[in-house]
Design goal:
22% of the residues lie in helices and 24% in strands. The longest helix is centred in the N-terminal third of the chain and has 50 residues. The radius of gyration is 45 Å and the shape is elongated. It has 434 residues and is of the alpha+beta class. The chain has 4 domains: 55 residues, no CATH class; 138 residues, TcpA-like pilin; 86 residues, no CATH class; 94 residues, no CATH class.
């Protein structure tokens, strides 16, 4: 292997470890043309500046004043750290941009749906999503529901945490009220969990809130509900009565204000006796818990909260404002329409059906309003006037017999009039011919 060193024009040596004949070869021998083949070579190299160039590039094996070195490990780690910070910032910015887009896209779609449902409400048509479907363009399930007093609601499901927080932060003013997981949305972003339910309430006339009654836990200000809850409080549905109250955040369990927390995320009555999860507050006969909106077919065990099943049927039924307590025992959803009445289990029946139905205290929920039905509080039946009974027991409600043509009252029953009424008292004859 041959090694050549040239420094500042000084031909120190050309050395070949494998060829001793090159030892002692110097610049002078070259200049003196002792070896004609190398004559003048060093001057040509020096004149072309090649010796300095070799040194500048660090090829001499010695480091000069302007020589360069490789990067140190610290420098490389610094570069990598800077690249990591820039990458993290870029990813965060991208995520925010995507979330912002999703929020804007969702609000835009909600606005279109509100216009459609407003038209449906004002024209008396049933609220329907047939035109836009039951999922948003971004794939979130959505439903529309009618509310009392000319209101309707749009409900979004499965909203992730980032989108939930961005939608709250944006502060959409079109609805009169926004609920997140059962709590009224305010500036508190912590109410957003991993899988969120957002409810937006609107007036059919799009006039915004009319008065404070439209604004739970707040006041109506220029058509927009403003919360009155203090710092550290959130407007949430109270477990005991289903009404919205300002609740300390430490008492909130799954979006519900729980005054008496129980085990495993449940809420209890003041005696810690009847405990249920916040989303299924109705404690029933067999100790099971049902949601207030559970529309399961009515039955004896499904709705019974009193009648010996519990010692606080009134308090238990109050947990569900959409239900009514019948006969101090059955907490049911009043689903009957005009021309129907409810039996003791919560099922609905048509007034004109020629039947005899066990109703107990359901007379106040339709049976008494049926023109051809008589209600007996003694045996707790609602019986059609034309039901195949000659005598209908009416011990406690004798005035009910007057509803039925062709019948007269003879204690304690409402009796079908005979063909020959001459044997009846004048008052009874008047009832049969009236």
């Amino acid at each position: 292997m041959t090694e050549i060193k040239i420094e500042n024009g000084k031909g120190n040596a050309c050395r070949n470890d494998n060829n001793p004949s090159f030892l002692g070869l110097t610049r002078e021998s070259l200049d003196d043309k002792k070896i004609p083949a190398f004559a003048g070579m060093t001057e040509n190299i020096r004149g072309a500046g090649m010796t300095d160039g070799v040194k500048r590039t660090g090829m001499t094996g010695e480091r000069g004043s302007r020589g360069e070195r490789g990067r140190s490990m610290v420098e490389m780690l610094g570069v990598l750290a800077i690249m990591a910070v820039l990458t993290i910032g870029a990813v965060a910015g991208y995520r925010y941009a995507v979330t912002k887009y999703q929020a804007n896209e969702t609000f835009n779609e909600l606005r279109r749906r509100v216009v459609i449902h407003t038209q449906q409400s004002l024209t008396g048509a049933p609220l329907s999503q047939s035109e836009m479907g039951d999922t948003t363009r971004l794939g979130y399930p959505i439903e529309v529901s009618s509310l009392p007093d000319g209101l309707f609601a749009l409900t979004l499901y499965n909203i992730d945490t980032r989108l939930c927080r961005e939608m709250i932060r944006t502060g959409w003013t079109m609805p009169i009220q926004t609920y997140v997981n059962g709590m009224i949305a305010a500036v508190n972003l912590d109410i957003c969990g991993e899988d969120n339910k957002l409810v937006f309430r609107f007036r059919a006339d799009m006039a915004g809130c009319q008065d404070d009654a439209d604004c739970p836990c707040g006041t109506c200000d220029n058509g927009i509900c403003q919360t009155t809850c203090a710092t550290g409080e959130t407007c949430a549905k109270d477990f005991d009565n289903g009404q919205y109250v300002c609740c300390g955040e430490e008492k909130i369990i799954n979006g519900t204000c729980c005054q008496n927390p129980g085990e495993n995320g449940t809420c209890c009555d003041e005696n810690s006796k009847y405990c249920c999860p916040p989303d299924k507050p109705l404690y029933t006969f067999l100790g099971g818990c049902r949601s207030c909106e559970d529309m399961e077919e009515p039955g004896f065990y499904n709705n019974l909260v009193g009648g010996g099943a519990t010692d606080n049927p009134v308090g238990l039924c109050q947990r569900c404002p959409n239900r009514v307590l019948i006969d101090n025992g059955y907490c049911v959803i009043p689903r009957c329409t005009t021309g129907q009445f409810m039996d003791r289990y919560g099922a609905c029946h048509n007034c004109e059906d020629i039947t005899r139905i066990y109703v107990v205290g359901a007379g106040a929920y339709g049976a008494k309003e049926c023109p051809q039905r008589i209600h007996d509080a003694g045996f707790n039946y609602s019986t059609h006037c034309n039901y195949d009974l000659d005598a209908i027991f009416l011990d406690r409600n004798p005035e009910e017999c007057a509803k039925c043509k062709g019948r007269y009252y003879a204690y304690p029953t409402c009796v079908r009039c005979p063909d020959d009424i001459s044997t009846l008292t004048p008052a009874q004859q008047a009832q049969c011919t009236g």
